[in-house]
Amino acid sequence: METKMALNYQGKSQKRSAVEKSINAFLIVYLCILLGKATVCTTLKYVWQSNPFNDEPWYNEKTKKERDTFKVLRMFTDFLSFMVLFNFIIPVSMYVTVEMQKFLGSFFISWDKEMFDEEIQEGALVNTSDLNEELGQVEYVFTDKTGTLTENSMEFIECCIDGHKYRDCTSELDGFSQPDGPLKYYGRAEKSREELFLRALCLCHTVQIKEADQLDGLLAHPERRHTYISSSPDEIALVKGAEKYGFTFLGLENNFMKIRNQKNETEMYQLLHVLNFDPVRRRMSVIVRASTGKLLLFCKGADSSIFPRVQQEEIQQTKVHVDRNAMDGYRTLCVAFKELTEKEYDRIDRQLNEAKMALQDREEKMAKVFDDTEADMHLIGATAVEDRLQEQLAETIEALHAAGMKVWVLTGDKMETAKSTCYACRLFQTSTELLELTARTVGESERKEDRLHELLLEYHKKLIQDIPKNRGGLKRSWTLSQEYGLIIDGSTLSLILNPSQDSGSSNYKSIFLQICLKCTAVLCCRMAPLQKAQIVRMVKNTKGSPITLSIGDGANDVSMILEAHVGIGIKGKEGRQASRNSDYAVPKFKHLRKLLLAHGHLYYVRIAHLVQYFFYKNLCFILPQFLYQFFCGFSQQPLYDAAYLTMYNICFTSLPILAYSLLEQHISIDTLTSDPQLYMKVSDNAMLQWRPFLYWTFLGAFEGLVFFFGVYFLFQNSSLEDNGKVFGNWTFGTIVFTVLVFTVTLKLALDTRFWTWMNHFVIWGSLAFYVFFSFFWGGVIWPFLKQQRMYFVFAHMLTSVSTWLAIILLIFISLFPEILLIVLKNIKEKNHQSSRKAPDSLSARPSATPLLLRTFSDESNVL
C-alpha cells in the first residue's frame, strides 16, 4: 500500500455527538428515578402490610403456598413488578424517533438548492446523519488552503530563469524581461538556459494527454486537439505555461516523451525513471535520455527542498524572485537539473531496482536512494502559478468568526503564499499582530530548541500572563482587545510535538496549545498530512473537548477529516477521496456558512427540544401511576389500560414531536444566515445542560401532580352522574390519561413557532385519533380479551358535565405557567424593542437565558 492516500491514512475513529452523550447522562438520572420509585413502593408495601388486616383482609385471604413463600423472594418479585409497572419512564421510543429525525432531517441538506453548484452539477452530500446536530456546536474549523479556500484552478503567471523574470511573453520568448535580485545588468538569460528550463517543464511531470473526441472525422473542438490530465492542477499549469512559450508536450508513447520545440521540431526523450512526489521530500524528479544519448535528471519542488540541493552561489538571484511571488500570493516551484554519466546512471538504476524489490523497509530504502540521487544539482529557475480564491470566501470566514468559531488554516504551501492568502480572505486583519514560530524565527542553529523555548515563553507571557481573565460577557467572544494570529511551520511543529530527550522541553506542547487557543486565527504552513491530523487531535483533546470541524478537498486532507468531530469534504478537482471519507460534502467553501449557521443551528435546536420533550412527557405519564400506588395498597394495580400504556409513545404523542423536530424554525433561515452571532446562543450544548434538563423535569413533575390530584379531588364528589352512580378506577385512569395526552400535545403546539400544514395535521390529528380510538376501543366487546374492563368507559365518562369541566380546567392549569411565561416575555420584548433606536441590531435581541430554559418565543422571527 504505497498510494498517497494509504500512506497518509489515519484510521477512522468512532464519532459520537454531544447530544448522544447528554442523552446517556439524562438516561442514568431517569434510571435512578425508576429504581427509586420501585424501591419506595416495595418498601412502603411491606410497611403497609405490617398491619395484619392490611396484609390479609377477610375478603382476600392468602393461600398456603403464598404464606410459605420466602419473604426475601417475595420482596424481590414485588420490586421487579414495580420496575415493570414504571418502566415506561425510560423513553425507549425516543431512540427510534431520534434516528428517524436524523435520517429524514439529513435530506434537507441534500435538497438545499442554495448548496447546488451549477458548474459540477452536484449539490451537498450527507454520508452520515448521526452528526447533524454537531454542525450547530462547532468551535474550531480546520481548513486546507489549495482547493478549499482557493479554486484549485491554476494559471501560469510568470517564471524566472537565472534571475530574469519572464511575464506576458509571446511564444518566441521576445517579451519584456527584467532581472530580479542583485544583478548589475538588464537583459535575459542565455538562449540555451531558456530552452533547458522549458524542456524541464515539459518533461518533469506525470501529465497524460487525452485526445479530443471526433465526430464523423471532424473534431468537436478544432481549437483544442488534446486535453491535459493530471492528479495535480499545478503540473497542468506548468505544461501549459511551457506551451505558451513555444515548447509543447505531445504525450508519452512506448516510454518515450515527445515534445515540440520553438522551431516546430519534435524531440524524443526516453523516460527511464520517475521519482514521484511525496509530502516529505516535497519534490519530484525524472531521469530521461535524450536522442543524443545525454542522460539528464530534472527536478522540481518547493524552494525549501530544492535550495539545499543546488550550488549555493546559484540561489540568491532566484530566491528574491520566489519570495516576492510568494508575498503576492502565488504558488512557487523551483526547477533544477543534473547531467548524469553512464556510470552514475547505472549505479542509480541498480539502487532503485534493489530498493523496489526489498521486502523490508522498502520506503526507507527508496527515500535514501531518492535523497542521494537528487543531490548536487544546478538551479535553473522558478515558476509562479496563481490559484484564485473561491467566491464569497472572505464573507464566509468573517461570518464564522462572528459566530464564535476560530479558523485554522493547515496547508503544505510556502509561508509567504499562505500568509498572503490569509490576508486576502480576511482571516488575518491589518490590525492582527502576528506571532511567528517558523524556521526563520527559530533559526537553524544547534540552539534552535532553546530559541524555540524563549519564543514560546515570550508569546505565552504576552497572550496569557499579561492579559486579565475575561469576566462574564458573551460566550466564545474574543477575550483580548488586541487580536493575535499565529504562524507555525512543519519543522517547528515537529520540534514541539516530538522534542529531543535531552532538551527538557516536555512542556512545549502545553505552552504552545495555550498560545494557539488565545489566538483568533492560526496558520500552519509546510504541513505534512499526518501533522494536520496531529494538530486537530491536539485541539480536540484539550480541556472541555471543543467540537472541531475539518474541511478539505484532497487525499492529503483525509487524515484530518477523519480525526475531527465533523469532517467536511469539498467536491473539488483533486478527486473524491475527501468527500467519500467525510461526514458531509459540499461543492464550495461558501456553502459552509449555511451548513453551520442555518442547518446546524436548527438541527441542534430541534433534536435538543425532542430529547427534553421525550423525558418530560414520559415523566408526566408515569408520575400519576406512581402516585396511584399510595391509594391502591401498593398492589401494582395499573392506573391506565394496557392499550393506552402501549400506544401512548407509539401513536398518541410520537408524530407531533417528530414533525416538530423536522420542520421547526424558531428563527428564519435568512435571519440565521445573516446574523452569525445567533449561532453562539446555542453553543456549548446549551439546551442540553443540567439547568434546562431540571426545568423540564420539574415541569413534568408539576403537571403529573396536577393530573393526578386534580382528578382525585374531582372524585371526592361521591356522585358524578345524575342517577347517583359513581365512576370506577378505570374511569379515573382514563380521565387522567385524557388530560395527559391533551396537555403534552398542546404544550408542543405552544412551543411551535413555524406552523405548516403538516404540523396542524399531526397535532390536531393525533388528538382526534386518540378520541376516535378511545370510542372504538371501548365501543366493541373484543372476543380475545378475558376482561372487558374498558367497555363503554370513555363514552360513559363524557356524559358527565363535571368531567368535561375538570378536563378543560386541568389542561389550563397545567399549561398556565407556560402561557404566562410566553405573555410576560412578549411584553418584555416589545418594551425592550420600543426603547431601542435600532431594533434590528443584535443588542436588541433578548438574552439567551429564556432560550436555554424552554422555547424560543423571544426569537420569534418566523417565516
Name the strands of the widest sheet in spatial order.
Answer: 5-4-3-16-15-14-13-12-11-10
Question: Which segments are poorly predicted (pLDDT under 50) over 5 or more consecutive residues?
Answer: 169-186, 214-223, 471-475, 837-863
- Portion of residues in beta strands equals 5-15%
The profile of the biggest β sheet is: 10 strands, antiparallel
From the spread of the alpha carbons, the general shape counts as: elongated
What distance lies between the first and last C-alpha atoms, to the nearest angstrom? 53 Å
The total count of helices amounts to 31
- How large is the radius of gyration? 36 Å
Number of strand segments: 23
Mean pLDDT: 82
What structural category do the secondary elements indicate? alpha/beta
Query: Helix share of residues?
Result: 40-55%
Quickly describe the structure.
With 863 residues, the chain is of the alpha/beta class. It is elongated and about 120 Å long.
What does this protein look like?
Its main location: membrane. It is an enzyme of class 7 (translocase). Helix content is 48%, strand content 15%. It is α/β, with parallel strands linked by helices. Among the domains are: 139-148 and 393-462 and 482-564, Rossmann fold; 150-169 and 189-209 and 227-388, Calcium-transporting ATPase, cytoplasmic domain N; 599-832, no CATH class. The strands form four sheets. Strands 5-4-3-16-15-14-13-12-11-10 form a ten-stranded antiparallel β-sheet, sandwiched between helices. The chain has a nine-stranded mixed β-sheet with strand order 1-23-22-21-2-17-20-19-18, sandwiched between helices. β22 (566-570), α21 and β23 form a beta-alpha-beta unit. α2 (18-48) crosses α5 (71-86) and α22 packs parallel to α26. The protein is elongated and about 120 Å long.
